[in-house]
Design a protein that fits this description.
Blueprint lengths: L8 E2 L2 E2 L4 H12 L5 E2 H9 L9 H13 L9 E4 L3 E4 L2
Antiparallel strand pairs: 1-2, 3-5, 4-5
């Protein structure tokens, strides 16, 4: 990940990320191996208080998994912490 150029590569190929996906990935990289609640993520990445029915974080994590995780098997980097939120393992 090149923070200066806002470029993300996987296996040498540049990935197309939305601004929200890029900001979410940056937040995960700044908080490795830390259980992050959806509220923490929403407030830090989107800058607003969460609403009980919002699934914004979940939808964006799914997209990051599709773009960045290995093609097969269970997630290795974007892990679900049941009842809490997510944890990122570099």
């Amino acid at each position: 990940m090149d923070f200066t150029r806002r470029v993300v590569r996987k296996k040498g190929e540049e990935l197309k990320l939305t601004r929200a996906e890029y900001n979410l990935l940056t937040y995960f990289l700044q908080n490795p191996d830390r259980a992050l609640t959806r509220d923490m993520i929403l407030n830090s990445v989107w800058g607003y208080e969460s609403f009980p029915n919002t699934r914004t974080v979940d939808a964006h994590v799914v997209r990051l998994r599709q773009k960045l995780e290995p093609d097969q098997g269970a997630p290795q980097h974007f892990l679900t912490v049941h009842g809490v939120g997510y944890r990122f393992l570099p």
